[in-house]
Amino acid sequence: MINNNRDDRRSQFKKGIDADESRRRRTETTISLRKSKKDEGIAKRRARVMAPATMMANDISSSSAPVVYGHSKRDKVFTTQDIPSLMEQLHEIQQSGVMDGDKLKSIAQAFRKIMSVENNPPVHEVLNSGALPYLINMLSLTDKPLVQFEAAWALTNIASTDQTAAIVDAGAIPALVQLLTSASADVREQSAWCLGNIAGDSTALRDVVLAANAMQPLILNIIKPESTSLFSNCVWALSNFCRGKPQPAISQVESAIPAIVDILRGDNEDAKVDALWALSYISDGGEEHIDAVLQCNVAPLLVEILGEESRMLTPALRTVGNIVTGNDKQTQAMLDADLLHKMQFLLNHERRLIKKEACWVLSNVAAGTEKQIGSVLGRYGCMAHVAEMAEHATWEVRKEAIWVVSNVATGGNKFHVQSVVECGAIDSLCSVMDINDTKMLMVALDALESILRVGQELGKDYCSFVDECDGLEKLELLQEHQSDDVYKKAVEIIETFFGCEDEAEDENLAPALDGDTYAFGIPQKQIDEAFEEECPANGHGAAPFATYNFAAV
Q1: Among 251, 165, 263, residue whose Cα is nearest residue 206
Q2: Checking DSSP bridges between strand 548-551 and strand 512-514, what pairing results, if any?
């Protein structure tokens, strides 16, 4: 994903951490953030309780409204006990060869009502009855849109459960895709709803839907919606068409991006939220995916959303975060849209996950060019706030903030490093040196090593900064760490920047009063321990070490 030129540049300053870690794709952060269904939206939706107004009107105008089991179809409460009778009616219709639209509609309606209960819908019982092939066949009755609608509704209820694959295995997808171009807007909406549920079940079923060429007719319903309800449901289905890992090929979803951008320019907030999630899924890929998003001039729209509190904030920020994991040019596109102007609002946000995402975004910007690093540091108060969060925020936020500090310290020039130190970087890095997270320890140690090296070059006593915040003591304790990498890095930093050879020489050469004499040289006890093998008694023939005593006057 990352081009070779940038890898070469970054490898020059990334030592203890793999270069790819400097600009990270979402891995462990994705897992925790995407557990929040209220932010991301629900992958599956149960079908509506009431039929749309147009269908209700058509129903009322029917001159032959059927009565099932002696009750009005609106009063009848269907249960699993009615399934045998419903199946018997289906067999009779099949044997007669006459497709009675009213009867078929009533039967399909009865099945979807049976499966419309809120808790534990009896989908298994319906499937075991053999009703599924009949419901799918009803989808092809183009001259009977009411039957198609009720059948699609029943299938939608099945698709909202864990039995979604049964619909696919029975061959329903081609018929559902065909219904996206039905003359009836309600039929189109219900088929989109069902396909959205199928695509939201798993990536395997999503790919089956996409392979059936469902994307283009779905987009047409978004571009020219006949109703707000149709528009909203199609946009939601679109988000599921783009959702999941492994991702769809960019060729399967890129045609949706212009429609998504148009949605973002509109005023339907529900649709905008779903469209932003779709955009976040598309952008969460390689440079090819990110380019496809940026080519539609979406960057200014995303940045504008970041400055306001709304339900759109999380998916917009996620999309921006995905974009800045791309190459330097792609990152610059977001900076040119004035991304950094919104960061203070995001870093101060009351929601922990927004703060975490904001730091993640900054960490990837700080993994870019020196100019981009300078942009982060040049935003007044931004870096100082990040350094403070790296020391005092909750661990999830601290972790991302430490990445920001580390990427500046290891990727910036010496003036950038000096600037980040002035913002409190050393305190932040030392504060995490006693955590039980080997990876983050290495991130902090690499950053500290880079800072101390620059300190030497600039004649800055950064070592005393480390000592003052108990960093040296923590480094010494890390020499006992179970990770060899942490141990070696801690030893290397201590020996390179906190060596005490001069102090040891002064101490050994200082005269000490030994009785009536002053003793110069190395104490005999140290000689015995350090050079035992060189003593004549061990047969090596080396000259003995001893102190030289001069009588005191």
Answers
A1: 165
A2: unpaired
pTM score over 0.70: yes
In the three-class reduction of DSSP (H, G, I as helix; E, B as strand; rest coil), residue 60 is classed as helix
Confidence category of residue 119, pLDDT binned at 50, 70, 90:
confident
Asked, as a colleague might, if the bond just before 84 is cis with ω within 30 of 0, I would say no
- By the 8 A CB rule, do 403 and 368 touch? no
| Region of 26 on the Ramachandran plot (φ > 0 left; ψ -120 to 50 alpha; else beta) | beta
233, 200 contact by CB (below 8 A): no
| Helix axis angle, 313-323 to 269-283, nearest 10° | 20
Nearest-5° Cα angle at 251, 212 to 367: 140
pLDDT value at residue 518: 45
Distance, in Å, from the CA atom of 158 to the CA atom of 107, rounded to the nearest integer, reads 16
pLDDT band at 53 (very low <50, low <70, confident <90, very high): low
pLDDT at 529: 44
Does 36 score more than 90 pLDDT?
no
- State the pLDDT at residue 475: 96
Of the candidates 44, 50, 49, the residue with the CA atom closest to the CA atom of residue 194: 44
Q: What pLDDT is attached to residue 540?
A: 41
Extended beta strands in 169-325, E state: none
How far is it, in rounded angstroms, from Cα 549 to Cα 513? 10
Contact predicate 115/158, CB 8 Å: yes
Alpha-helical runs (H) found in 53-115:
53-61, 83-96, 101-114
- The answer to whether the beta carbons of residues 478 and 510 sit under 8 Å apart is no
Task: State how far the alpha carbon of 173 is from the alpha carbons of 209, 265, 395, 547, 553, in Å.
Answer: 7, 32, 46, 95, 108
How does the average pLDDT of the chain come out, rounded?
Answer: 84
pLDDT digits (tens, 9 = 90+) for 54-95: 555 555 333 333 333 334 445 578 999 999 999 999 999 999
By C-alpha distance, which of 527, 515, 523, 520 is closest to 552? Answer: 515
**b/e map 283-310, b = 16+ CB within 10 Å:** bbbebebbbbbbebebbebbbebbeeee
Spatial neighbors of 243 by CB under 8 A, at least 6 apart, are 43, 199, 200, 206, 277, 278, 281
CB 201 within 8 A of CB 165: yes
Q: Could you count the other beta carbons within 10 Å of the beta carbon of residue 91?
A: 11
For the chain, how far is it from start to end, CA to CA, in angstroms?
79
Burial grade of 191 (CB within 10 A; 0-12, 13-18, 19 or more): buried
